[in-house]
Amino acid sequence: MNVEFCLLGPFEVLQSGQPVRLGGARQRKLLAILLLNANRAVPADQLIDALWHHPPSSVRQQIHNSVGGLRRTLADLACDARVTRTDTGYRLDIAEELTDLHHFHEGSRAAREAEALGDLPEAIKLLSSALSAWRGEALSGLDGLAIETAAAKLNESRLTALELLAAYRMREQEYGAIIAELTPLVRQHPLRESLRATLMRALHLSGRSADALAVYEEGRNALVNELGLDPGTELRDLQLGILKGTVTVARPETPKPKSSPPDRRLSRFYLPHDTNDFSGRSAELNELAEKVLRTEPTTLVISAIDGMGGVGKTTLAVHFAHQVAEQYPDGQYFVDLHGFSAGVEPLSAEQALEQLLRDSGVPPELIPSGAQARGALWRSQLAGTRSLVLIDNVVDAAQVRPLLPGSAGVLVVVTSRRRLTALDGTVPVSLDVLPPDEAASMFAGVIGERRANQEPEAVAEAVRLCGYLPLAIRIAAARLRDRSSWTVADLVGRIRGHAHRARFLQIEDRNVMAVLKLSHRYLPALQSKVFRLLSLHPGTEYDAWSTAALAGITVEQAESCLDELFDFNLLKQNSPGQYHFHDLVRDCAIQLVNETDSAQERRAASHRLLDYYLAATEEWCRALSTASSQRRFSDNLPPQEVRPATSSTDATAVLGLEFPNLTAAARFAADNGWHGHAWRLVCAMEPYLTLNNYGGQSYELYAAAAEAANRDGDSFGESLCWSGLAAVCRERGHKEESILHIGTALELARRAGDYQRESALLIHLGLMYLDQDDYVAAEEHFRAAQALIAQDDKHPNHSTITNNLAVVFRELGRFDESLEHLNRSLELMPPKHVVGRLVTMCNIGMVQHAQRRHEEAARTLDEVLSGCEAIDYQPGIALAHVALCNVHRALGNPTTSVEHGRSALTLARQLRMHRVECEALSSLAEAALAAEDVNHAEKVYAQALERSTHFSFARFEARALEGLAHAARRRGDIAEATARWRDALDRYPRDMHDATHAQQHLASIEDESATCFRCE
């Protein structure tokens, strides 16, 4: 059934032309916001601001509920649209052609191209068709500031398009059509002089000069009555021309003939929102605009003063990009390289290029590996386009160089704390502090114009003492604003009086420290203590619970202190309850804590924080594991008031939010001699690290933890850390290193006589052999692990071993035995072990698929996918998606198959699940082959073969070769198909059931009707 998402008029969703019920107002608004940002992540905080005037305490859960309802609605529609959870919020992945907004934008772009080629009738036809998508005022029926702002922008784009259509018609002398279209529009927008001028010209040239002059008079009266202004120059000159009879149709220069329209890809627009209170920087904006217009550079670099933060680089770059955006209609891209983001690793060129390629419309399965190949594809995407690329927060020239285009016509704006002098061909603009007049204007904007006008000289002196730095000005003015008994002269006196103190920051001879220390001086004692001690926090964000532990106060006191520090502009807040320092303010707090608090007090505060994070991690991770199987590390710690997490879903969300702080705390502990905390923190995180497939910094964490446990003299802890490191290596395909680490862990366990630990390690070793497709060795180790705990019927590892044996049997083609073991595993598994049950159910779905019970498999795997999404179990989501990709291909649903395959591929790459990545590529290729797109299938199979060979995954190399054989046979090349199937047989692991598919085809190579499990 045809589905259309309609934003250009009353907001609604149509299915086969009939409106679809979308639930309540909040769900409708949520869908609208996601549609306005289609295929781009919308931060959760942005959604909260848009959906609630005063967010409730349960806002995160309500967002989750609304998204869940929206997912069910989209699933019922059975269309190419899906809401995906991201690191920061949610993204609506949707085929853009399902929206009327896409029809309007694409039609407008095509019209401009037709006009550029000199085909004006075609341009008129295309633009008229694009405008037909409009049914009234955009997004009518919805309210809220975010919606109203977006609607205003959309409505303005419609008026602009109507003006452009009228201009086209004018050149074709279609005066009657212009008059019919513009007469009602001029009534609706009486102060829009450009519309009125076009209508006057059309009336005059059609012989209705008197009517044209009447339209002018109506406009003049409206302007005078509404604004107290006379008409602009254009209207006045046009009236005079009509009176003199000199108005004619302006004939454009005949364009040079072109053989075909330019090759334009789908336009993409990803610039961040422009700030609504941008002030100053007029000289820099004029300089940038002049250089861009004059030199048309390939690259434009904006660097900050001496690498200093807080001077407004990104704000200026985004504002400038919005100013010139219309000159770059083919795409406006944005990427933050996190060069100087606290607690965040800078993006590699490969990571940044993947984002840019995805944004430019390249399907994930066609994005090559490696920075060099991705860079070449990125340059080809931009070649011949008028695009703008904003690259923010760059470390140095080497980081940005691979992202640069290879041809002119593309504007690249780069921001960095360093001058990028090593980047050839740039137009450098060093962003200095504000000029005195702009600084005074900013100061007055904070404290109020009336108050500032009473003491203009004092304002000038205040901003001079602030060094004209935007951050310092805003902080000082905010202090004054909140103290009505102070005068500006009072503030100046206090700033000047503390100029002798150690300076916080220097810009030539300007001093900023006086302003920041004044802010601290007037804080109450408790808030002052919290402000100082927060600088000891090794993480990136602080909540009330960690702050309470750090300062040795109650959570209620901590909440009050954080709120007051936020009001004082000494803390920033990007999401409810989460606070962080600006870089410069943090530096100030560090200096203050070193001056004010003794080394013993600072160490005690850090110890309290590490105790808290250890207890909290254990508490949160308990919800992700069975109580009987989780080790306890915090029994000897003082009682802790821990941030609550009442379910596995809550725990996963809290751990996702706190993970950067936990990893930072573990590194801090290792670096500062708290060896027991260092290894216990990492081991306590194990359920969450497993949940995320041991991605990110897991290797570094376990390596440091193993060293810390050794220094702590704890052999049990050291064994835990080595086995954790082995698990990381196993997931990343480092087989030899993984076996080496598990051997070290086994030796430690056997030396200690810990048979339960030995059993768990043998399971690990069996999994490693399973990953190497050595099914005999895998079964042998699972059986050995089982024997060690045979006397303990209640041991939780029984269900794990039974599940793993089932996987072995599945790979050997013993499907009935596999199902029997999987069902037995579910019986043995505690009901609270949600993740384990989902993994086992996923294995059941895969076996059902292998038995050709595809409908049952689809139902099972849909249930698994929903369960994994409910607890945000990312590896499980990836596994369910790739399995559903295979099932829906077998069911004859290639579109749904591709949707699942691409979701699996994206997640697998994010989580570095390389086996799933290789399977997803082959599964996507099989879906393409099922849809008769042989060319695309061969390209994706080639990617699958390259990635499988890179990771030495023999089974996936074989599957890719098998797929290339299918493609060759589809092309009629029997010789190549035969060779490919033989190569596949050579690569398949011994005794693996999947090899029988290639054997079937080789046994009936001349039979064109022969099929196998992959192609039936």
Structure description:
Helix 9 (209-227) packs antiparallel against helix 10 (233-244), helix 23 packs antiparallel against helix 26 and helix 41 runs antiparallel to helix 42 (934-951). The two termini are 26 Å apart. The strands form five sheets. A five-stranded parallel β-sheet has the order 8-9-10-7-11, sandwiched between helices. Strands 1-2-3 form a three-stranded antiparallel β-sheet, with no helix packed on it. The chain has a three-stranded antiparallel β-sheet with strand order 4-6-5. The chain has 1016 residues and is of the alpha/beta class. The radius of gyration is 33 Å and the shape is globular. The chain contains 45 helices and 15 strands.
CA(first)-CA(last) distance? 26 Å
Beta-strand content: 5-15%
Biggest sheet: strand arrangement: 8-9-10-7-11
The main β sheet shows up as: 5 strands, parallel
Which spans have pLDDT < 50 for at least 5 consecutive residues?
Answer: 250-267, 296-308, 497-512
Structure annotation, total helices: 45
How would you classify the helix and strand content by structural class?
Answer: alpha/beta
How many beta-strand runs?
Answer: 15
What kind of oligomer do you see? single chain
Categorize the overall geometry: globular
**If you compute it from the alpha carbons, what radius of gyration comes out, rounded to the nearest whole angstrom?**
33 Å
Average pLDDT figure = 83
Share of helix among residues? 55-70%
